[in-house]
Specification:
The complex is a heterodimer of chains A (96) and B (253). Helices cover 18% and strands 21% of the residues of chain A. Chain A is an alpha+beta fold. Chain A has one domain: Roll (Ubiquitin-like (UB roll)), CATH 3.10.20. The radius of gyration of chain B is 18 Å and the shape is globular. Helices cover 61% and strands 0% of the residues of chain B. The chains are: A alpha+beta (96), B mainly alpha (253).
Chain lengths: 96, 253
């Protein structure tokens, strides 16, 4: 436990079922990662939401900042050729 | 109201696997869960962090669920036809068959973890045996409850390790909690001669890992819970648990 009396923050990711990826569901406080996992189980899988949980200390996440949003995301806006819309899908291909 | 458990009170556990189940033995298993659920509920808004509020509340609700299933079955087995509410809210103190450990007033967090560790270690062993109960309902409840109580035991384990291996103060308070809980353990042991050594071995391994001393031999023992003898705290607990239902009989959501 930290000297300030405040437990560190953890981000919680839950995988809903096999084959899906983990999705961010929220955050919580815990004294360490082991307890964070248990707290996550109590807070976020009460209604059988998951089959797997990840907890990550919030401090280790590097996030993009709102100021960088334009240079980060806008350049992709006019590049329609990145979307797979120029292909004819053959009729007998079922699972594309 | 029918008098529950008067007359020939079978020693707890004695006839557990001798064919027909003894309703009083099932009642003990139910009352442990019901009374401890009531105590654990007291932690809501009082735990060190909101996450721990949730954890203890969840454990209490698990136990309440076990109590409901078992109480319902007791009402059928003992031939009185009482439902779970009648058994929970209309019995008086001497008719409750829980061990005195679970009725103890809420102490500090270390005391709760000491109680939860010993209680769930013993209950887990009891439930594992009850999975083979000749009574299908009891076996079914036990089968579901084993997973729940394994988690309760783990929760207490995690905290005892951290408090024992934490600061000087947390260690001292955890050690004191173990001393204070020790007189209530013989009731659990006598209740389940088969599972008790396994439970004790588990707890002692946790204490060793946490750097805590094994519980000292207590100078007195609590006794009588399984025959309806309870401590002073029990009456207050029942008053709080039962007064609403007795004030408004049959009220529902």
């Amino acid at each position: 436990m930290s000297g300030t009396g405040e437990w560190p923050l953890f981000e919680v990711f839950v995988r809903g079922k096999r084959g899906l990826s983990h999705t961010h569901v929220g955050s919580l406080h815990a004294p360490d990662a082991t307890m964070a996992l248990r707290n996550a189980r109590d807070l976020y899988t009460r209604r059988q939401e998951g089959v797997s949980i990840w907890v990550v200390p919030s401090g280790v996440i590097t996030a993009s900042s709102p100021e960088e949003r334009d240079s980060f995301f806008d350049p992709a806006g006019d590049k329609v050729y990145r979307h797979p819309t120029f292909y004819e899908v053959p009729e007998d291909v079922e699972y594309l | 109201m029918t008098e529950a458990g008067s007359g020939a009170a079978t020693a707890a556990g004695a006839s557990r696997h001798a064919g027909r189940v003894d309703p009083l033995v099932v009642l003990g298993l139910a009352d442990d869960a019901l009374v401890y659920a009531q105590r654990l509920g007291e932690w809501l808004t009082r735990a060190p962090e909101i996450e721990e509020d949730m954890a203890l509340g969840n454990i209490g609700l698990d136990l309440l669920g076990q109590a409901r299933g078992l109480l319902t079955r007791v009402g059928e087995l003992d031939g009185t036809g009482r439902d779970e509410d009648a058994l929970a809210f209309w019995r008086d103190e001497r008719e409750f068959r829980n061990v005195q450990l679970v009725e103890r007033p809420r102490g500090d967090f270390a005391h709760e973890m000491a109680r939860l560790l010993w209680f769930s270690a013993h209950r887990l062993e009891r439930l594992r045996q009850e999975q083979q109960s000749p009574d299908e309902v009891v076996a079914g409840v036990a089968g579901k409850a084993v997973k729940e109580v394994a988690y309760h035991r783990d929760h207490a384990t995690q905290w005892v390790l951290r408090l024992g291996d934490g600061t000087e103060e947390s260690r001292a308070r955890m050690q004191q909690a173990l001393v204070d809980v020790a007189p209530y353990l013989p009731e659990l042991t006598e209740d389940d001669p088969v599972g008790a050594p396994v439970a004790r071995e588990y707890v002692e391994a946790v204490l060793a890992e946490a750097g805590l001393g094994a519980p000292p031999e207590p100078r007195w023992h609590a006794r009588g819970g399984r025959t309806g003898i309870h401590s002073e705290a029990m009456g207050f607990l029942l008053a709080e648990m039962q007064h609403l239902h007795r004030t408004h009989p049959g009220a529902s959501w």
